[in-house]
Fold this sequence. Notes:
Elements: H1 6-17, E1 27-28, E2 34-35, E3 55-58, E4 64-69, E5 75-82, H2 96-103, H3 117-122, E6 126-131, E7 136-143, H4 147-160, H5 165-183, H6 190-198, H7 212-217, H8 220-230, E8 236-242, H9 246-257, E9 280-286, E10 293-299, H10 306-319, H11 325-333, E11 339-346, E12 351-358, H12 366-383, H13 387-403, H14 408-420, H15 431-436, H16 440-450, E13 457-463, E14 517-521, E15 527-532, E16 538-545, H17 559-565, H18 576-585, E17 589-594, E18 599-606, H19 610-622, H20 628-645, H21 649-662, H22 683-693, E19 699-705, H23 709-720, E20 744-749, E21 754-763, H24 771-783, H25 788-796, E22 804-809, E23 814-823, H26 827-843, H27 848-865, H28 871-881, H29 888-896, H30 901-911, E24 918-923, H31 925-932, E25 938-941
Parallel strand pairs: 4-8, 9-13, 15-19, 20-24, 20-25
Antiparallel strand pairs: 1-2, 3-4, 5-7, 5-8, 6-7, 10-12, 10-13, 11-12, 14-15, 16-18, 16-19, 17-18, 21-23, 21-24, 22-23
Amino acid sequence: MITKIKYLIIIACFIALISFCGGADKAKNENGKAVPQQVEKKVTTDASALKIPFKENKLSNGMRLITLEEHSSPVVAVYLFYHVGSKNDRPDRRGFAHLFEHMMFRGSKNLGDKDPSIYIENIGGYSNAFTQNDLTCYISKVPSNQLELVFWLESERLGFLKINQEGFDAERNVVAEEYRSYAEKPYGTLLEKILPQIFPNNPYKWEVIGDMNDLKQASISDLQNYWEKYYVPNNATLVVVGDINPEKVAELSKKYFEWIPSGKNIEPLKFEQSTIDKSKIIKIKEHKGPAPIVGNIYYTVPSGHPDSYKLDLLSNILGENESSELYQELVIDKKIANISMSMNYTAEKEGIFIVGAVLEVLSSKKEECLKIIADKIEKMKNQGPSDEELLKAKNNALKGLITNQLSVSRLAGLLGYKAVIENNTNAINEEYKLINSITIEDIKNVAKKYLDPNKKFTVYIEPALGKDKEEAEPKIEKNNNTKSPDFNGKPGLVRPNYIPNEPPIADEINWKDSTEVYSEKLANGLQVEVIEKHKLPYARFFLGITKGAITDPVNKPGTANMAMSMITKGTKNFDYKTLTKELDLYAISLYGNCNYDTSSVYASTLVNESDRAMNYFSDVIKYPNFPQEHLDILREQMKTGKAISEKEPRYLVRRYLRTVIYGDHPYGRTIDGDLKDYDNITNSDLKNWWQSHIIPENCTLYIAGDIKKDDAIKLVKKYFADWKSDKKADDAKLAEFPKKDKNHIYIYNLEGNQTQIRVAHLSITRKDPRFFASQVLSTIFGGTFNSRLNKSIRIEKGLTYGSSGGIYPDKRVGIMNIGTFTKNETVSEAVKAIIDEITKLKTNPPTLEETKDAIRYLTGSFVLEREAFDSLVDDKWLIKSEDLPSDYIEQYLKSISKVTPVELAKIAKELFDEEHLAIVCVGPAKEIKDKLEKIAPVTVLNK
């Protein structure tokens, strides 16, 4: 997995997600009327006491060890950082750091060809890695009693990695598919065009994924040399966070890592700092970017610099939220942009500040937009932010510091980043003080210092109209270098006798969440459930609603989704600007969400603001008024988002799969409707849908966090006791699901170098007695990296970056769904391989070993998934929304533990059908149609 340079890729995220949450703050007077509260001129929670008590030391070979005890659940996260990233790539080997990350999963001297992540998956853990500009990190998250297994595996590949030509060729092909998958996305080629212009003289100018021609020329000797140079203990930082004893972890680290000798000292990288003497203009044509984007980029400071925190707050104030002056003027008042954006990005050696906007698809108001941006920046330099703007930025930064502690994985990542990139692990405990000390003058000063109008890049990103396909990238093939010998470890390295030859695997943890849930039903029918979690001063509210997109009027798809997207645009008691300003000011997240069968309203808050947050939360639920002005704005934003989605192959393949699988049933529509539907939905439609479906008896309110149950119930009664509704809509009769048909291939014609593939048929729901066993079978077939499907298509054949498949349930029907992607030349090969694997599942049913591994994976992953702050809420809502037995979770664990190979062989024949498949491909029809016709009849779909 690549973590790309974030500062530009976020552009596509802003556009594609076009979902905005506003904010508000109200209280009631003695007569129950909503009134604004007074602004308090201080941060909303004192986090100075929230120290993260990590421990840090160093092994004799130079490896750094950072540990942190966190006993909320029996889970541990292990992050092993190597201080080497894409900036260390040779100019003629761009992408090498990332390619080498892939090679670390190709086996070792003692594992043979076995991927070490297989062992993590088999005990229900999570294993992955990422490469950035400045570092590479290997991640394992496992039940805490399996920590020694992780240490054994990381020690093994640090000392005895297997490097050979076969594995190298396979992983280069996988990286090529990964490259294509990025390039086929909207704005997917933006970074490779813009980075060389921003960083012309240093290695930040190339993408992490690199250049396919460079990788084509590399040899396995290059790999071995790279491994011996950078993958050494004195260039590594091991971070262990979770249910641990730090002293025991220190002993284990010495046992598994201290015997590996240090490498040579790595010479500091020669790095030329970027400068700009006068403003420059960058113009980029994006063949898959339908919306124009304009903005400015300025050089700033690297990570860890004291000014970086001030720039973070400046970014928040300028344009990171809806209440910012930039958003209000560009989007709300003048309506010349769909979204404003501001971001301070820092890497180890460089930092840049971005401020810009996404315009409407055919907008010509680029210069007007840039003028408004320039005016806002000048105002910030001359006047600085208001007291409220600074308070808002501090509150949001503070909330981020607290939410970063909700997950052991997030904590491990942050600790490692501070240690490796900033060389100051304790910076994580200094942030609150630094942020809270920042003044208005500080913000003015950094704006003056860094946002110089005479030293900036002005960027214009415009659609390349009429051009759908760019020149194909180089193909990866086996190189013609003389074959090198296989490598199986660092020269002369001998494993100590006290380390076992086999990976040590502990018994499964028989764990059950003992958290109590308090339930009460109000007189109006609203069910309330409270889950106390007193770890951090933080709370979440979740209103689950048993009505979703399938209740849309037949001729107005997208109504429910648009209604949920509009709830923070104004209520009976608060206009949009007041609501947005207040929520942003107190760092209260509030938004609605819509699925096919359910909807939800979600809020999160620092616990000191629970009353305020519940006030707004209740108001948007009880009194949304869907103002016409903001409906018009949202409609245009959604049109831009949809225009981008319709350039995205993954979106299109999911969209057309639904059409052919579900037919006329509402599941066959998109939740948000299609582009043609948006203009049909009126203010009255939204009000009618809301009043008919969002009523107390359709809802369950969950409160989880640092709040006592009595206080929570008192809060709910204060704001929801008066919620009543005398209107209720009858459920409409739904169309039948189509019957299975013989194998048929549907091609949606889209030019590009890669084809998205989905293979599916209808299947069972959670209420089917075979469902629990089906999840074991799905795990074996396509649920993990080491599944039969991924092993065949990615690991053995190298056709894709990844594939997955299995049985996925919805409330009314399930689906057997398989997904992957590959270059156009190998589409038919990939489709055949998928069908072959379905057939093999029936003719060569799961073995006892596969069954045991799948059961161990599911029970282990169950523990990991419940580490999430409000995972119990998810469990409770699943049971409620799908009308499952109250002991469903207990049934699940008990049932999967008893599944046998005989049972799996039986349901494989019943639930996997290789003769009645809908096969949807999104790619260039003229290149893939002929070969696919040899597999099954083909229909080319029109938009």
